[in-house]
Write the structure tokens for this entry.
Amino acid sequence: MRVTARDVAERAGVSVSTVSRALSTPTTVSPGARRKVESAARELGYEPNPTARGLVTGRTHAMGLVVPDLENPFFAATTKAVQARAWSMGYALVVADSDEDPNHERRLARKVSQQVDGLILCSPRSSDAELEALAGRVPVVLLHRGSGELSHVVADNVEGVRIALRHLRALGHRHIAYAGGPHRSWSDGQRREGLTRAADTFGDITIEDLGSFQPFFSGGVAAADLVLASDATAVLVYNDLMALGLLSRAGERGVDVPGGLSVASFDDIPLAGGVGVPLTTVAIPIGPLARAAVDVLAHLIEDGAPARAADSPLGHRLPVELMVRETTGPVPSPTVPIR
């Protein structure tokens, strides 16, 4: 037999309306009454009806998450971490996949925003103006995308590039190629900024920009021939999926990694350390970033805090770590062909 709010009220010795307010808007009842209601609810195993609670509070007790590509292990892991954190805080999660399409992303974000209390946009491709307009309708937190105006949680991409190039430089590499990600990717823009800063800092490194590629295995395959046609002895790749494609194509071309070419990338997805040649990569802290995004969004929802990063300490930048594995090594001698 289902436990009702009336059962909780009788056990706690309060009215049904007090039970409703204690569980939906706890600040509107006295601490003593709230403790009685919470204790009775636990003893009886009472779970409030979310639809009924929503009618009282005007909230759904759900968060939304829009990601670019659920088939990418990086975003799959992000989704799992966001869901776990949201669930632990009493929120359901509505997930939508934009298929790396900025127009579809905007439509999804508007649609999902009507069903949730707040929205996490993961690596959004939309413009700043479009994101700010969305934030006027529902609390929004950007994940893997910085903003001067909106709350955001990001990894330190610029530092990630610096430590990757420092590693390659220590191995003797001076001509390093970069296989970039999508044109509208904020992370790619940050990594390109890191390349410029690091090249200026080290002074003796030449960076060869190979252009932008789709952030998939196929994008890395396409980038590989350009790397091998250059004079670069090492390549830094936008993400691990691309790097795996590049390694596959290099193998088909008979190029030894790292003997003839060193390869490093970003993300540290599970495949990076366990398939073929373990990949040297800059590890993005997926779990901590996801948890921080949920925490920030919950703060915006629960406290009605401003979504503007400039007005509150809601811009978070988390450190990264270089995972040195087997795809980077000393610069090849002139006698070793690299293409």
Q: What stands out?
A: Confidence is low (pLDDT under 50) at residues 309-313. Residues 157-285 form a domain with the Rossmann fold fold (CATH 3.40.50.2300).
